[in-house]
Amino acid sequence: MTVLDAFSLAGKVAVVTGASRGIGRALAQALGEAGAAVAVTARTAEPAQRAADELRAAGINALPVSLDVTDPAQVDRMVERVSDGLGPIDVLVNNAGISIGRAALDTPEQVWREVLATNLDGVWYCCKAVGAQMVARGSGSIVNVGSMSGMIVNRPRWQPPYLASKAAVHQLTKALAAEWAPHGVRVNAVAPGYILTEASPVDQPEYREWCVEPAAMKRYGLPEELGPAVVFLASRASSFMTGSVVVIDGGYTLF
User: Where does the Ketoreductase domain start and stop, copy by copy (predicted)?
Assistant: First the structure.
């Protein structure tokens, strides 16, 4: 096997949550280009179908699945549908997440619960449901999308629930990695910095002072720049890695 062969996902089945746009859409594209059949999930059917159609147009075997990751019953149904439609799941990318910026004293209980339910509970439910299948089979790779916000306090836009949820995702990644390593299942995470998406318009002038200038590379990232790292973590190229949190932030957290 050559070095490049180690990155191949040919014959593998991958699931990407929150894959209808932004980072999730780019990760689904990258996994598909590496050879995987990809199930793309979104909360409602229409955006999932649209993303799947785009991937199919690019020659990727894609399956749309509507999924609210905060609902364990829906997560179980997703695993069944993907297994029936594409085969046993080899790769899970937990990308679905939300961010609501509020100062702590202005954050209502509902916002706290909503952010934690999506960003942490959703990862937990998907890891458990897919991980059970992987552990039973003795192989699999899970990649959780954390954030550099799990390591630092973002300023000036306070967002305590988001920071707490992403720090928890990093620790959950390590906990599952340690527990499931003897069963042939690897669990890693990526921690992106500021990435330009529909939900994060960091290309606008008002963002430059606090999300571009502080980074060593003096720029924001693009969703497609995360794809190769996720393919690496999903594939045999990272066969001796588990429990790692790979920071991809343009050097933002260096200072």
Answer: 12-193
